[in-house]
């Protein structure tokens, strides 16, 4: 058996490819006020558990909300995007460790739970900037006003006719949305957002990480 | 001797501004620049800010279209969005509202369906044949014989004055976006602006929608005081960042929970945008629509509304005529007299309807020449201005549940505030009358109340001041004939005839005559229709009632409704490689897959003789976890699963409750409570829903978690006698057939990638391994396989080769070799279906099917002439010539060098060796022999090496 160095690739083609954390990412750096970045390299772990039980309390995040917690020494973002379903985002390459930490965390609950590393099965982009709601309004019917979907909201909806988890994760007071969907539609989703945001000056920037 | 000036005969370029007035205080044109365009092929010029028709009117043109049925010449009537006489073709775009669309450089404007010209339209002969186009003529004529309907349709179409969309038209750019403002204000006049400002100041987000190109409503064509107030209100709007202003936009409708479609034009780079708004509160502030007067000759070019005159003179600085008669019943008519005089128009007669004076008829051929007054006098004029009343355009309120009531004192319908829902308010002229201060005061309160109802203000309910309606004489018809509906060419006589024929309900009259069904959607016509009908039936207007105002407010293009196209496309991680290597794409649902790489037959041969790899990423995959997975599989599949050991895979078929085959695939047991299920590519989503449905509704007690992982894995099938050799070069998994046998699963590392799932199965009929790798590494593994197998002659193969390979092996494809009626035993599943299981979905139906034993069977077919490949779906005939089945799959087999197929065939013809007749689509018959479905390697020896 021969051994080769494997590089993981996102479904979204980078404009200026480079390799970081074992992933091919976009080296483009943009300082514009409205950006789209491919965050697919982030570890993405799915947790299934009863809607509102001990596992939910252990995770500390209820349905429709997000939380940032420390898990096994790693800072992670947990999003309760579906009923009885959580998405845990961590740094690239930490998927297996996250699975182990989560299984350990949930083992004591006595509930039927399952933890699954979906890093490779999902696409993840971040749309950031004050005009981000305006871009999303072109492809998503959800009311993005603060009163309805404040920072820390997680929901599952249709974005450009693709089932997508929309996670509002403002950074430094700037509107920011993580959009998470199945991998094979990742390029289409990114293209749809860029088209919807063309008039607002949406620019592509490189991988940022959870930040 | 005529008192009217003789029209000058000059070149179009000379008369570009022949009727253009000196600058006006409120004009919206930019005189510093000119805009060139063509009108029926002749070059013209106008100014930015001109509408198409104002530019033409400034050049002295007075006829812009021919009418719907009789092809009568039509000119300006309202000089607004609603103007029925100004619908034109602009380039490839039909039915453009010429009195509203702004002029643009290079526009090619043409009249619609006039031949040979607008001026001399031969179809005007329809007017002579009007008795054959009587009321409801389409219900009375062209009925028989039915066989001629297509011919009638073609002939009638040539007379309709609609435009055309050339087949080679460039597609438009249409957009769609969503909005959730606290308040939508429909109408940007003084009331709309004031309501918007008040709502915004109360903390609400506001979308202010105006049909015109500027905010301001009637203030725009007013005097200095109105213009000053206009500037003040516009400044207030501009100062509120919470107000989003949409001009050249129309609120199309109001649906439940304030779902409000808004069609907006004038967005850079976009033809039209549909804004799908969901508003907390809708404020309806459209103002009033001036109502035409019904009298003989009322459709002659030169007969216009007072607001049209005021717009032309004050906004576009166009002199609308030379000698005018004004029929006035209100201050707007009086103001029009002043505007005409200031424009140098000779006002020959002011007919004051408030004193009982009237107009009987207008006379002329292609334009007004003489006005016949009520006292019998005849006045030469080229302009007759009518100001006889207003219509409250209440359609948005009607759609909200309101039933406006007729107020005879004001001669118009007014909203009934007691019937409006909490989240709908009305402001401005639609409610009542008053000067600008009164309108603004009322709207200010409405705006504050709207913000409160939208939850943006904690204050108590706002006291909205009354806005009483002003007295106005009831003036609808002179009783001398004339048109009620200018868009549909419906006359007063048509209405009275309909009533006489028994159509005495306004809803029936609408449908029988088509009155109110044209582009103005009743805003100009409804009240006159009701009034004429009321007079004909002896009822009051209130008793007669109105027609139902339905969405949309104005006609909407199909493009606007369709909006931006969102058609998701799915790609495998290996797609870049496929594209680089000449793969011919196949659109399979949302997936783009390689159909072949240029030589599908060669790809088949490569798999049979060496090794090939195919990208099967779209195969549906579900991760199943939990102690009750085996029970779930036993329930959903027709075969048995409780005996499947760890490390084994098994083929399964799912049937619906009716026993019809719905999907198939293999499922591998990766651990004690961990399975990976595969489905067909097209059935992935359906099966996921199916599984969840059974879990959540029938067995919520089962502990099973199902997660779709179709795209978590990039899947490659490595097939062919040398597949083990190729895969062995890249994996640490022991491929020895003694330890990794047929229908088994292993996990391990492939090409340096951990976490791969390998199962040994054989859809192609060859030794093969399906390798599922974490998708991010899919391209890497694929490239490594191609590199490592170069010396083995590895070839990629596409879906077409796979179809041939599986057909040679006799493997059915669900959805191709089955259909929506194919039950399990008709799909060749006899050995798979375990009728002795306690239960599974479809069991009763399948038991019954077995007992009947009359259903069609899946069989193999071989045409006697092996060079004939019957097209799929060719019918198979029984001995009496009836249909006995159909060919479901058919290909030329590169392995056998002849055509082979699968078919669904009646039970009595399904015995191997039976000869059947296949009727080809071209009518020829060919003979084929029924065979086993398995054409290659019936013993399965090649799979188990």
TrEMBL record, chain A:
SUPFAM superfamilies the UniProt entry points to: Folate-binding domain
InterPro entries given in the database record: TrmE/GcvT-like (IPR027266)
Protein name: N-methylglutamate dehydrogenase subunit D
Organism: Actinomycetospora straminea
Automatic annotation (TrEMBL), chain B:
Ranges for region Disordered: 1-25
PANTHER family found in the cross-reference section: AMINOMETHYLTRANSFERASE, AMINOMETHYLTRANSFERASE, MITOCHONDRIAL
Keyword Cell division: no
Family: Belongs to the GcvT family.
Domain Aminomethyltransferase C-terminal residues, every copy: 857-937
Domain SoxA A3: 483-564
Protein name: 2Fe-2S iron-sulfur cluster-binding protein
Pfam families given in the database record: FAD_oxidored, Fer2_4, GCV_T, GCV_T_C, SO_alpha_A3
Keyword Translocase: no
Assigned keywords, A-Z: Oxidoreductase
Superkingdom to which the source organism belongs: Bacteria
Residue stretches making up the GCVT N-terminal domain: 575-837
Organism, scientific name: Actinomycetospora straminea
Compositional bias ranges of the Basic and acidic residues kind: 11-25
């Amino acid at each position: 058996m021969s051994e080769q160095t494997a590089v993981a690739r996102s479904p979204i083609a980078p404009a200026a490819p480079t390799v970081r954390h074992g992933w091919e990412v976009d080296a483009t750096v943009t300082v514009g006020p409205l950006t789209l970045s491919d965050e697919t390299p982030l570890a993405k772990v799915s947790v299934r558990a009863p809607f509102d039980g001990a596992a939910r309390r252990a995770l500390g995040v209820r349905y429709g909300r997000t939380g940032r917690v420390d898990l096994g020494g790693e800072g992670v973002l947990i999003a309760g995007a579906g009923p009885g379903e959580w998405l845990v985002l961590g740094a690239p390459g930490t998927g297996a460790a996250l699975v182990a930490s989560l299984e350990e965390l949930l083992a004591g609950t006595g509930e039927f739970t399952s933890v699954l590393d979906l890093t490779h099965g999902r696409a993840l982009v971040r749309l950031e900037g004050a005009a981000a709601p305006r871009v999303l309004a072109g492809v998503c019917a959800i009311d993005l006003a603060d009163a309805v979907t404040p920072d820390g909201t997680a929901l599952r909806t249709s974005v450009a006719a693709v089932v997508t988890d929309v996670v509002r994760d403002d950074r430094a007071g700037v509107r920011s949305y993580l959009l998470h969907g199945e991998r094979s539609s990742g390029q289409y989703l990114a293209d749809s957002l860029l088209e919807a945001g063309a008039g607002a000056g949406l620019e592509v920037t490189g991988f940022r990480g959870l930040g | 001797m005529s008192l009217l000036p003789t029209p000058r005969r000059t070149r179009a370029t000379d008369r570009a501004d022949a009727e253009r007035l000196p600058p006006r205080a409120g004009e919206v044109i930019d005189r510093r620049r000119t805009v060139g365009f063509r009108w029926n092929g002749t070059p013209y010029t106008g100014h930015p800010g001109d509408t198409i028709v104002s530019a033409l009117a400034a050049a002295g043109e007075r006829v812009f279209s021919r009418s719907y049925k009789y092809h009568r010449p039509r000119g300006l009537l309202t000089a607004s969005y609603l103007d029925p006489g100004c619908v034109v073709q602009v380039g490839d775009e039909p039915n453009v509202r010429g009195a509203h669309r702004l002029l643009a450089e290079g526009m090619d404007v043409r009249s619609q369906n006039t031949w040979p010209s607008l001026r001399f339209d031969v179809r005007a002969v329809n007017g002579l044949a009007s008795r054959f186009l009587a009321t409801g003529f389409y219900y009375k004529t062209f009925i028989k014989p039915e066989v001629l309907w297509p011919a009638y349709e073609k002939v009638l179409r040539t007379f309709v004055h609609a435009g055309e969309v050339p087949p080679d038209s460039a597609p438009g750019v249409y957009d769609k976006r969503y909005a959730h403002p606290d308040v939508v204000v429909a109408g940007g006049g003084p009331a709309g602006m004031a309501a918007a400002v008040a709502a915004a100041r109360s903390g609400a987000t506001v979308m202010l929608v105006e049909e015109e190109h500027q905010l301001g409503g009637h203030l725009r064509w007013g005097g200095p005081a109105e213009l000053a107030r206009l500037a003040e209100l516009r400044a207030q709007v501009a100062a509120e960042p919470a107000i989003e202003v949409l001009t050249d936009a129309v609120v199309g409708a109001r649906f439940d929970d304030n779902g409000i479609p808004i069609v907006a034009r004038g967005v850079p780079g976009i033809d039209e945008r549909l804004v799908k708004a969901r508003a907390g509160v809708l404020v309806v502030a459209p103002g009033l629509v001036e109502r035409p007067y019904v009298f003989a000759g009322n459709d002659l070019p030169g007969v216009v509304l007072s607001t049209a005159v005021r717009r032309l003179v004050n906004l576009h600085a166009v002199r609308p005529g030379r000698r005018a008669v004004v029929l006035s019943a209100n201050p707007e008519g009086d103001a029009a007299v002043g505007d005409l005089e200031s424009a140098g128009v000779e006002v020959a007669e002011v007919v004051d309807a408030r004193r009982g004076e009237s107009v009987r008829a207008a006379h002329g051929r292609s334009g007004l020449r003489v006005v016949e007054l009520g006292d019998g006098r005849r006045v030469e004029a080229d302009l007759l201005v009518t100001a006889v009343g207003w219509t409250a355009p209440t359609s948005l309120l009607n759609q909200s549940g309101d039933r406006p009531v007729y107020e005879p004192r004001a001669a118009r319908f007014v909203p009934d505030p007691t019937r409006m829902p909490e989240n709908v308010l009305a402001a401005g002229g639609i409610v009542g009358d008053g000067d600008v201060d009164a309108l603004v005061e009322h709207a200010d309160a409405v705006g504050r109340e709207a913000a409160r109802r939208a939850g943006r203000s904690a204050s108590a309910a706002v006291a909205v001041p009354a806005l009483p309606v002003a007295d106005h004489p009831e003036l609808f018809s002179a009783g001398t004939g004339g048109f009620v509906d200018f868009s549909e060419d419906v006359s007063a006589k048509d209405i009275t005839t309909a009533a006489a024929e028994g159509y005495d309900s306004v809803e029936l009259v609408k449908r029988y005559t088509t009155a109110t069904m044209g582009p103005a959607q009743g805003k100009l016509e409804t009240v006159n229709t009701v009034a004429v009908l009321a007079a004909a039936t002896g009822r009051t207007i209130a008793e007669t009632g109105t027609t139902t105002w339905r969405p949309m407010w104005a006609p909407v293009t199909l493009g606007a409704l369709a909006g931006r196209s969102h058609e998701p496309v799915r790609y495998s991680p290996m797609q870049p490689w496929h594209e680089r290597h000449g793969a011919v794409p196949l659109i399979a649902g949302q997936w783009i897959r390689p159909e072949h790489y240029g030589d599908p037959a060669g790809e088949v041969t490569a798999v049979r003789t060496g090794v090939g790899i195919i990208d099967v990423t779209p195969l549906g995959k579900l991760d199943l976890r939990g102690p009750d997975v085996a029970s779930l599989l036993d329930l959903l599949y027709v075969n048995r699963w409780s005996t499947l050991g760890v490390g084994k895979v098994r083929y399964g078929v799912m049937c619906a409750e009716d026993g019809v085959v719905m999907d198939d695939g293999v499922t591998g047991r990766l651990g004690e409570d961990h399975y990976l299920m595969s489905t067909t590519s097209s059935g992935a989503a359906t099966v996921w829903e199916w599984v969840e449905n059974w879990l959540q509704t029938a067995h919520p007690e089962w502990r099973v978690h199902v997660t779709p992982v179709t795209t978590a894995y990039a899947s490659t099938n490595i097939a062919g006698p040398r597949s083990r050799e190729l895969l062995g070069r890249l994996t640490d998994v022991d491929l020895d057939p003694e330890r990794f046998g047929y229908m088994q699963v292993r996990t391990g590392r492939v090409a340096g990638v951990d976490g791969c799932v390998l199962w040994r199965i054989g859809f192609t009929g060859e030794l093969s391994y399906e390798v599922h790798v974490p998708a991010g590494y899919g391209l890497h593994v694929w490239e490594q396989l191609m590199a490592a197998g170069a010396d083995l002659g590895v070839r990629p193969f596409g879906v077409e080769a796979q179809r041939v390979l599986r057909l040679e092996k006799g493997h059915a494809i669900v959805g191709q070799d089955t259909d929506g009626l194919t039950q399990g035993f008709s799909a060749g599943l006899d050995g798979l279906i375990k009728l002795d299981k306690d239960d599974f979905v479809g069991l009763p139906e399948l038991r019954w099917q077995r007992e009947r034993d009359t259903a069609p069977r899946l069989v193999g077919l071989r045409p006697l002439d092996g060079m004939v490949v019957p097209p799929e779906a060719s019918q198979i005939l029984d001995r009496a010539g009836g249909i006995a089945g159909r060919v479901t799959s058919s290909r030329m087999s590169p392995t056998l060098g002849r055509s082979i197929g699968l078919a669904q065939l009646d039970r009595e013809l399904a015995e191997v060796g039976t000869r059947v007749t296949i009727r080809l689509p071209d009518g020829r018959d060919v003979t084929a022999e029924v065979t086993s479905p398995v054409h290659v390697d019936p013993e399965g020896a090649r799979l188990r090496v």
